[in-house]
Specification:
Helix 3 (about 60-70) packs across helix 5 and helix 6 (about 130-135) packs antiparallel against helix 7. By secondary structure, this protein is mostly helical. It starts with a helix and ends with a helix. The protein contains eleven helices and no strands. It is globular, with a radius of gyration of 20 Å. The chain has one domain: MetI-like (MetI-like fold, Orthogonal Bundle), CATH 1.10.3720.10.
């Protein structure tokens, strides 16, 4: 209990003093997670609409498989990305391993099933009469899709928030493909892992509190935007 209290005090000290290293690590964590969430959203929203509005063989299997990947371990995704971008891998020539770029790619792969599956569920929750009315009034397929997305905007925003939370809290990808390089790829979660292994529990707890605070700020901003 004393370690938690000391960690809280240290977290407040680091935030108030604007510790340069903590600010750098926190900023990098947010940039990587926000970027991966935005890119994954740009892919998943249209893809979820295609899946929802079209019937094809294996649709239910695809949805079930997508939902199964909700719980895929981050280390498994990290290992896959590592093999993909290692020197012996098919994309090794890009020299992206141990860079923030490959961390963004890894987080995108991690949260894509979450965003895709939850967005499909959100679209499925829209009342059928709304779609039928739009089509009867001459709305095109694109206009109908925009209407349904607007009706499901609260659930879709919740899916995006869930994806962001999964991205910023992961550690397997950050360690495996990021390498935890100080000043380059170190993020809050990998820093917590490092400080814990060093026995500095107070700093590890402080970084964990800062991570929760950063996630809280982003979620508040998203919810404010949703309410508007």
């Amino acid at each position: 209990m004393d370690a938690i209290w000391q960690g809280l005090i240290k977290a407040l000290q680091l935030i108030i003093s604007l510790d340069p290293e903590v600010l750098e690590i926190s900023g990098r964590s947010l940039r990587i997670s926000v970027t991966s969430t935005l890119l994954a959203s740009l892919i998943c929203l249209p893809l979820a609409s295609l899946v929802h509005f079209n019937n094809f063989p294996g649709k239910r299997v695809l949805v079930n498989l997508t939902q199964t990947f909700y719980s895929i371990p981050t280390v498994a995704v990290g290992l896959f990305v590592f093999v993909l971008f290692s020197r012996a891998g098919p994309l090794g020539g890009l020299n992206l391993l141990f860079t923030p770029t490959v961390m963004v790619i890894g987080q995108m792969l991690l949260i894509t099933p979450v965003l895709l599956g939850l967005t499909i569920s959100a679209l499925s929750g829209v009342d059928r009469p709304i779609i039928d009315t739009a089509r009867s009034l001459g709305a095109t397929g694109f206009q109908t899709t925009l209407l349904v997305l607007k009706e499901a905007r609260f659930a879709v925003t919740a899916a995006v928030i869930m994806g962001f939370g999964r991205a910023i809290s992961e550690v397997g990808i950050a360690l495996i493909v990021g390498g935890n390089i100080r000043g380059f790829t170190r993020v809050i979660t990998s820093a917590i892992s490092l400080e814990t292994s060093k026995g500095d529990l107070e700093l590890a707890i402080a970084l964990g509190i800062i991570l929760m605070f950063a996630a809280l700020v982003v979620n508040i901003l998203l919810n404010m935007q949703q309410q508007r």
